[in-house]
Design a protein that fits this description.
There is one protein chain. By secondary structure, the chain is α+β, with helices and mostly antiparallel strands. Helices cover 51% and strands 8% of the residues. Strands 2-1-3-4-5-8 form a six-stranded mixed β-sheet. The longest helix is centred in the middle third of the chain and has 30 residues. The termini are far apart.
């Protein structure tokens, strides 16, 4: 496009004399606004320009070609417009049959139809449906892209190492080796950075973050948020949690937000297609997180809300048996809890009591029981779920004004020292060091190893 074409397109022209002439003449608002309208009109026209069909048009194109395939129409006899050739590859889905794909490729490669630009759609589809294609389809698309890249689309040769089965993992290793950010993953395979949400990049991120270095957790959080694929979350995070071994607040926070509160088992259900090892890792990682959270809750409750090392040590050893918990306390105690645990955990498990009293309660679910400890030393209470006394204690639990309401009067002792008998529910006073052994025996006798399985 030369100067004359530009002048015709714009409808007005600029040169040095005109520009400085405008300055000398003063600002002409009317002329300025008119020119802005011309530019806006050009911009609107440019937005209408596209190099592929719309999604609906692509679906109709693929349906037409699929009918031709079913009807036995020779692929070399089908004529496509340039726009259709560029667009067909975008229409591939998990329902695409392998034989139809081969037919479509022959149509694309026919004389008059072929254009290297059609490969872009196939590349998008293979990365977008990486785990969903029927057997052989993904490999066939990869072969088509690489074969044509070798012939007449040399700029696609960079894809060669990354389009086979292990391609995504190779890409993660490649970026780590070159000390490049995970954000370079899409551009490396000729995709816009926004395509990090394609499933293909799941294995890339798993490989890239398989050994998360100190200071990389914010990077991991950003990558998973942008990628936003459940499969990746439920494979990578369990692996990292199991490998970590000890409490890691960053991993706890990321896993709680990306997968869900581990106390809600439904969030940690296996994803579609999970293998036996992945299912096992999910179960183990959830169990580890439950232990991490309970250890922190117990530490916070008995170190921060009250000072009781003896009870903290006792319940720390029982933490792995706790399947759920609720803390009842003041607004101030909730703020203290937020310093130790992810906000999502605190919001779900903390009930603010409409009272300025300092006494707080920790209700722990172990097997078929709810055991309640209080910050003020006295006695713990154990209720069997759905019993009469349990319903009496918790009937107003969502709107308590005083945690003392959780103590039902007239409860018998859990352990009768005179007759050495265990009660099915009751209270146990924290008197002397003997209370710990009595509570351990009660848990072993009444609850057994159910929570350890």
């Amino acid at each position: 496009m030369d100067r004359t074409d530009v002048k015709k397109l714009l409808g007005f022209g600029y040169n040095e004399d005109r520009v400085f002439g405008f300055v000398k003449a003063g600002f002409n608002a009317e002329k300025f606004n008119k020119n802005l309208e011309i530019l806006k009109g050009i911009g609107d026209k440019m937005l209408e320009v596209r190099d592929t069909l719309s999604d609906d048009e692509i679906r109709k194109l693929l349906a037409r070609l699929h009918k031709s395939w079913k009807d036995g129409v020779p692929p070399e006899s089908i004529e496509l417009t340039l726009m259709e050739s560029r667009s067909a590859g975008y229409g591939l889905t998990e329902k695409t049959e392998i034989d139809f794909l081969y037919y479509l490729i022959k149509v694309e490669e026919a004389d008059g139809n072929w254009t290297p630009s059609c490969l872009k759609g196939y590349l998008h589809s293979v990365l977008r449906h990486w785990y969903d294609f029927k057997p052989g389809v993904r490999e066939a698309i990869g072969w088509f892209i690489l074969n044509r890249a070798d012939k007449d689309a040399k700029d696609l040769s960079v894809l060669i190492p990354f389009i086979d089965t292990d391609g995504p993992a190779k890409l993660g290793t490649h970026l780590r080796k070159k000390k490049q950010s995970w954000q370079w993953a899409p551009p490396t395979v000729l995709m816009p950075t926004t395509r990090i949400n394609y499933p293909y990049f799941g294995d890339t991120l798993m490989t890239y973050f398989k050994d998360v270095q100190k200071g990389e957790y914010d990077d991991l959080r950003s990558a998973l948020n942008l990628h936003n694929q459940t499969r990746t979350d439920k494979i990578l995070l369990p692996q990292l949690i199991i490998k970590a071994g000890k409490f890691n607040k960053d991993l706890l926070d990321i896993a709680t937000k990306r997968i869900g509160d581990p106390f809600d088992e439904s969030w940690w259900a296996p994803f579609d297609g999970a293998n036996a090892e992945q299912k096992k890792n999910l179960r183990l990682a959830r169990k580890i997180l439950l232990s991490w959270i309970m250890q922190e809750v117990i530490r916070m409750f008995f170190d921060v809300l009250c000072r009781d090392k003896e009870r903290k040590d006792f319940w720390s050893k029982q933490a792995h048996k706790v399947s759920d918990f609720t803390v009842y306390g003041s607004y101030q105690s909730k703020q203290l809890a937020l310093q130790s645990l992810p906000t999502q955990n605190v919001n779900r498990h903390f009930r603010t009591v409409d009272s300025s009293m300092d006494n707080c309660a920790l209700a722990m679910c172990i097997g078929e029981y709810v055991i309640i400890e209080f910050t003020k030393v006295g006695a713990l209470y154990a209720y069997k779920k759905d019993s009469k006394k349990y319903r009496e204690a918790f009937r107003g639990a969502n709107s308590l004004t005083n945690v003392e309401s959780l103590k039902v009067s007239g409860m018998q002792m859990l352990y009768d020292m005179d007759y050495h008998r265990f009660a099915p529910e009751g209270k146990l006073e924290h008197r002397g060091i003997g209370w710990r052994s009595r509570m351990e025996r009660w848990i072993s006798f009444q609850i057994g190893n159910i929570a350890d399985d």
